[in-house]
Amino acid sequence: MKKLAFLSAVPLTYGAAPMDDDALYIERYERAEAARKSGSLGSIYDVMAPLRSADPLVPLQAKSGPSPISADVINEAAAYVAPRKTSAFIILHEGEIVHESYYGDTKKETPLVAKSLAKPLSVIAVGRAIKERHIKSLDQPASDFFTEWKGSPKETISVRHLLTMRSGLMRQSPYTGPEDVMRKAYLHPRHIEIILADYPLINPPGTRYEYANVNGELIAPLIERATGERYEDWVSDQILQPLGAQGGEIWLNRVGGTAHSGCCNTLPAHSWVTLALLVMQDGVWEGARLLPEGYTEQMRTPTAENPFVGMSIYNGARYAEYRGAQNPDYGGGTYHSAPYTASDIILFDGNGNQVIYMLPSQNLIIARFGRWPDKALGWDNAFLPNLISPTQ
């Protein structure tokens, strides 16, 4: 494991970024725009670092006894996901696989680009850092690590504010062009320096929920400054290794730079499901406590500013036909045909209707990975969990 040379050093400012960084940014921007306009899967993930697999691997096992879910229900669920650009579909009951299917070129070991499913992974990474006493608590000021914020209005942003999207930083919205700080905060080789120095604070910290990728992006440098270890090493050694999970890759902002933690990593379907299982088990794995006691409860507990989400875990306790990651004040989001029948349901929910449903009362996990379904088919976020339940 490579130790970082800094713990609280102030990084370069955006203005000090060399011209080749700006040139790479423009190249990435143009590549991303071309992919967006064509609807292709063109990627800007051009500098990748490994997320190392556990040694030894401890894969999830198939259900040892009869399936608690009927074959007719499983067939109906599979028939729903198959035409909707799904790459992997898994049902887990009591920690064992009841069903798994893969589509196209995807196999069990294929690392999947899971977009914002990276955010709950980053929340788990913070939990590990708290458990290992590198971070005092969720309410520790982030400026203890981001010393650039000392003496500024951002000084009172806490770790919890970042994880609950209540930092006060400007919300995610359509960007206006290559000069937009929102786009630079994603594509620039110095994106962390740009976020710390230039990303605007719109609301007093802790007063309003606003979904913004920058909150998740700041977790990688937070972990690095708190632990002295690279984010990809922390995830590999402190999460994947104890879980016995297979690794993948993560996008760095530049060669030797900082990992993206709000998005942009790849893991196989089993590894994503294993993270959900860790949450279902209150942060305990094989008898060892990996996350502080009560931490997963805090992950799923909503805030007064948004009743639908805690720390990158959404809940279904209250019905809304359309809802998503943005503040409910704006309306819109993913379609829900009916209330969730399981009142305790919680979700990892990412870009492309990539969703992992967790039903603690039924010890059930349902996971679907892939791309956005065609508009003609759409996606009903209530269909699968309301359909699938163990037979009584």
Give a description of the structure:
Strand 7 and strand 8 form a beta hairpin. By secondary structure, the chain is an alpha+beta fold. It is built from twelve helices and 14 strands. The N terminus is likely disordered. The longest helix is centred in the first third of the chain and has 20 residues.
What spatial order of strands do you see in the largest sheet? Answer: 3-2-14-13-12-9
Number of helices: 12
Mean model confidence by pLDDT: 93
What is the makeup of the main sheet?
A: 6 strands, antiparallel
> Order of helices and strands, N to C?
HEHEEEHHHHHHHEEHEEHEEEEEEH
Radius of gyration: 20 Å
* Helix content class: 25-40%
CATH class of the domain at 42-130 and 228-387, anyone? Alpha Beta
CATH topology of the domain at 42-130 and 228-387: Beta-lactamase
Supply the CATH architecture of the domain at 42-130 and 228-387: 3-Layer(aba) Sandwich
- What amount of the residues lies in strands? 5-15%
Count of β-strands: 14
Low-confidence stretches: 1-16
Structural class: alpha+beta
What general form does the structure show? globular
According to CATH, the homologous superfamily of the domain at 42-130 and 228-387 is DD-peptidase/beta-lactamase superfamily
First-to-last CA distance: 48 Å
Write the layout of secondary structure elements.
Elements lengths: L18 H20 L9 E4 L19 H11 L4 E8 L2 E7 L9 E2 L4 H14 L27 H5 L17 H7 L3 H8 L14 H5 L1 H9 L3 H13 L4 E4 L13 E3 L1 H12 L3 E2 L2 E2 L5 H6 L13 E2 L6 E2 L10 E2 L10 E5 L3 E6 L4 E7 L12 H5 L5
Antiparallel strand pairs: 1-5, 2-3, 2-14, 4-6, 5-6, 7-8, 9-12, 10-11, 12-13, 13-14
Helix pairs in contact: 3-8, 3-9, 5-6
